[in-house]
Amino acid sequence: MAALIEIREHEELAAWCEADTLCLWAAQGLDGRCRAWRSADGRAVAVAGPGLSTRDRLAVRGAPDAALPLVREVLGLTGPSYRPLGDRGLIDALAAGIPALVPAGTFGWMDGRRPAALGPGPATAAWLPDAARDEVAALLAAGFPASQAKPGVAGVGRWAGVRDDAGRLAATGTLAWCAPAVALLAGVAVHPRARGRGLGRDIGAFLLAEALRRHEAAALMVEEWNHAARRTYAGLGLRYRPLAAAAVPGRRRVESGGPIKD
């Protein structure tokens, strides 16, 4: 029996991964660029999404003994730029069992579903006009230079913001690389001069409310050491899940972002 079976429909993927938001986000609705597979026994799922949050991602879920042969074969289809990510014990097992892979860091995934935060976002936050892109870029440079979401980056949507009493942009954030079922909050930043006023919560609450009006679930990536952000999003109803990633050293995403071929 083949080690992997391709999953071709979103509903089928949702059933096999038990509606796991990480897998559904990576699948992007199986839009023709992204692909998904399961092990023959159904105990593991792998979803390949090119150029998501600036990397080629391979979301993995399931039992390590089933995921190992599945991921080994999937990486032969996708190529070595794809970085497996998933629950830490699973990624540790993949890095130990696939010689080409090495651990590539730990972080958190926070997610929530309707009806959480379905009320209106804070009145202080609003969508920004396109003309504010330079302001957004300047705020990110000052408050979150490591953000993977930036104005003009492929997959990054409209920016939201909070202005101070002087009309200056004090906080910003966006919905980026969103899948039909899962919106991703990204680029949430507060200018250093405006910290300590709860503006991070305001922009996060606004984006979460907007996300859940349009999608079944919302999620974000967060550094595990960023306890302030974790507390903020937990207060908005999101749950924290520790993740890890692995990678083939020296490999980055495929610039073409084209379909994955057999």
Structure description:
Strands 1-2-3-4-5-12-6-11-10-9-8-7 form a twelve-stranded mixed sheet, with helices on both faces. 29% of the residues lie in helices and 33% in strands. It has helices at residues 10-16, 21-27, 64-78, 88-97, 133-143, 199-214, 227-235, and strands spanning 4-7, 35-39, 44-52, 55-62, 83-87, 102-113, 125-127, 156-163, 169-176, 182-190, 217-222, 239-247. The protein has 262 residues and is α+β, with helices and mostly antiparallel strands.
**CATH class categorisation of the largest domain:** Alpha Beta
Number of domains: 2
Please state roughly what percent of the residues sit in beta strands, choosing from under 5%, 5-15%, 15-25%, 25-35%, 35-45% or over 45%: 25-35%
Instruction: Quote the average pLDDT.
Output: 92
Specify the structural class.
Answer: alpha+beta
Strand order of the largest sheet: 1-2-3-4-5-12-6-11-10-9-8-7
The end-to-end distance, rounded to whole angstroms, is 18 Å
Biggest β-sheet strands, sense, barrel: 12 strands, mixed
Helicity level = 25-40%
Q: What is the second-level CATH architecture of the largest domain? A: 3-Layer(aba) Sandwich
